[in-house]
Amino acid sequence: MTQITPPRLRLRRPDDWHLHLRDGAMLDATAPYSAGFGRALVMPNLVPPVTTSAAAAAYRERILAALPKGAAMQPQMTLYLTEGTDPADVTAGHADGIVRAVKLYPAGATTNSASGVRDFDKVRPVLEAMAAAGVPLCVHGEVTDPAVDIFDREAVFLDRVLEPVRRATPGLRVVLEHVTTREGVDYVRSGGPDLAGTITVHHLAINRNAMLAGGIRPHYYCLPILKREVHREALIEAATGGETQFFLGTDSAPHPDHAKQSACGCAGCFTAPITMPLLAELFERADALPRLEGFASLHGAAFYGLPPAEDHITLVRRGEPLVPPGRIDAGEETVTVFDPGFPIHWHHEEA
Ligand SMILES: [Zn+2]
């Protein structure tokens, strides 16, 4: 019998530049699935949101307590920008190494975003202080105007909000989170060195047909919402093309199954357990495996001014597909793990 060595891919430990870990039992249950990332930028949309450096430091401790012993992950904390955010607290938190970035949610845009910004003039002093101190602003790039169609909200946000904000605050470093459209990709491409974009694995893997054709699939419902195939193709091009302004931010967002499978279901896909195998599958299809390390491990760290990881992970391609945990327990709840609907042949190599 001939033993054929399966293809292997060794890359510097990846970072996840957009992650939801929640709190309490949900945090304890889901954080271990992200423990293999080096750095993870943790979103602040708890109830109540994380709005001060002190709250971010306390949340960081709770995350560290929820991670398995010896976990690689170093949580990178964000503050939730509100119209009452104190510029001095942001810059002091950043100088102390507690605050990595500030997150902008337009009021009402997504899960727990009611405290978000309505009037940008009110946050101008914070944005100016952030520009001066080099603190990036991470943006949920969708307008919340009910008159704008949900599939157009990202594209409209670029013209109506992001461009004016960036013009008004020169030098502000901005990450357009979870880019989902061709317009978003083009905007990031043309934005110069102070602008970057994160891309999720679910927006790379499926288009809106997966969510809506042949029955509605609530576990594919996320915000920004899945778009047409032409947009998914633009994202694949951006992620796999080696352009340094694009990097991984999974937006992995656990919700209890009863809240997803409901007459008014929550937005979010829990992708953390399969992120890297699924990415390898997608990069292989695009004939771009050598560029996976840039997207997942190098570009994001460089944008945030951090050194690349010193250690590595290995992915291995096997004949038999990955069998992800279909559903995990979180206290009294269960959470369904994202399933792209096609086989994933890449696996984390057991140590
Ligand atoms: Zn998110």
Report what the structure shows.
It catalyses: (S)-dihydroorotate + H2O = N-carbamoyl-L-aspartate + H(+). GO terms for molecular function: dihydroorotase activity; zinc ion binding. The modification N6-carboxylysine is found at residue 103. Keywords: Hydrolase, Metal-binding, Pyrimidine biosynthesis, Zinc. Catalyzes the reversible cyclization of carbamoyl aspartate to dihydroorotate. The chain has one domain (8-348): Metal-dependent hydrolases (TIM Barrel). The strands form 3 sheets. The protein has an 8-stranded parallel beta sheet. With 351 residues, the chain is α/β, with parallel strands linked by helices. The chain has helices at residues 24-30, 53-66, 87-95, 124-133, 153-168, 182-189, 201-205, 208-212, 229-240, 257-260, 275-285, 292-303; strands spanning 8-12, 16-19, 39-42, 74-80, 99-104, 137-139, 174-176, 195-199, 246-248, 312-317, 327-330, 333-336, 346-348. The mean pLDDT is 95. The longest helix is centred in the middle third of the chain and has 16 residues, at 153-168. It contains 12 helices and 13 strands. The site of zinc ion (ZN) has 5 residues, from loops.
Provide the fold topology.
Layout: E1 8-12, E2 16-19, H1 24-30, E3 39-42, H2 53-66, E4 74-80, H3 87-95, E5 99-104, H4 124-133, E6 137-139, H5 153-168, E7 174-176, H6 182-189, E8 195-199, H7 201-205, H8 208-212, H9 229-240, E9 246-248, H10 257-260, H11 275-285, H12 292-303, E10 312-317, E11 327-330, E12 333-336, E13 346-348
Parallel strand pairs: 2-3, 3-4, 4-5, 5-6, 6-7, 7-8, 8-9
Antiparallel strand pairs: 1-10, 10-13, 11-12
Helix pairs in contact: 1-2, 3-4
Bound molecules: zinc ion (ZN).
Residues 18, 20, 43, 251, 253 line the site of zinc ion.
